[in-house]
């Protein structure tokens, strides 16, 4: 009796072992999907998905790929072209159609190399057509440039314009561009912060800059930042990233600034920059001297500053003249504070300055003027 039980137990164990070993083969034979599987209907897209899809469909035809080639084309053709177009004589970026006349807005730094070195600029439309473009005007202080498209069979539609005055932190943002040369890329995020400051050309800073966490990478420069209605609210211009790739901190020029500067560039080829006609001292030097404010080094003859009697540094003795410590009712600690106050006042507008001279504080009213072309 015990021997029979042992034999039955061993037989059962061997059967179980055989089933365990053969199970994958049996399952593969019985259940393998060796024919295309039936497609499961997904149903309608979620409302948020539908909205994003529609937004991209409306806005993407207005977004273009900008190629700015410096004059050294022969050498560039001999070199490998990296994805972002850097280092081969070519700078690439993004732009968008501004109006039915074929004006395209992009960043100044995207086309600066070509304009300064006698190069060429071309634009690839969303249709795939490549057309030549010429520079209408640039505004380095705002990192903006306007191009004019050459002949094209079909002019893309102009992008809808919104406002940046009523933006709220947390509202949705959508960026369309060409990161690393990848056409028509959509990224999404939110307005992360407002009223940031961003350095631009000639030591100036742009105030009121929009911060977003929508992924922005090299190649996105000059592209549109949109709100959930598909309206332009900013022009993507920079990222903060130790690695050079998106770290979730991108910056965009507010559309209210764009909507003021671009028409001036189209009309005059340049912008009128409100100023008072001074040459300011280096901030680092002023800090070492314990000066909190903008030191006037020189006053441009015939400027509003000269008319108001402001004084610069005495070049013979080295004595400091006037230090601007307030403007437009706000303190001035550095040049960016002064330029922001002048921008807020606008062109040909009075601005009340607070200056320190010979240890005394006094108030001076100065009327802003276009001093961009003035020279000492």
**Considering DSSP H and I runs of 4 or more, what fraction of the residues is helical?**
10-25%
Provide the CATH superfamily of the largest domain.
Trypsin-like serine proteases
CATH class descriptor name of the largest domain: Mainly Beta
Q: Give the count of structural domains.
A: 3
User: Could you tell me the radius of gyration in angstroms?
Assistant: 31 Å
Number of helices: 8
**H/E series, N to C?**
HHEHEEHEEEEEEEEEHEEHEHEEHEEE
The total strand number stands at: 20
Largest sheet: 6 strands, antiparallel, barrel
The share of residues in extended strands comes to: 25-35%
The helix-and-strand class reads alpha+beta
Distance between the termini: 119 Å
- Average of the residue pLDDT scores: 83
Give a description of the structure.
Helices cover 24% and strands 32% of the residues. The protein has 376 residues and is an alpha+beta fold. The strands form four sheets. A six-stranded antiparallel β-barrel has the order 1-2-3-6-5-4. Strand 18 and strand 19 (360-367) form a beta hairpin.
Q: How would you concisely characterize the structure shown here?
A:
The protein is α+β, with helices and mostly antiparallel strands. The protein has eight helices and 20 strands. The chain is elongated and about 120 Å long.
Any key phrases for this structure?
alpha+beta; Thrombin, subunit H; Pdz3 Domain; 3 domains; 6-stranded antiparallel beta barrel; elongated
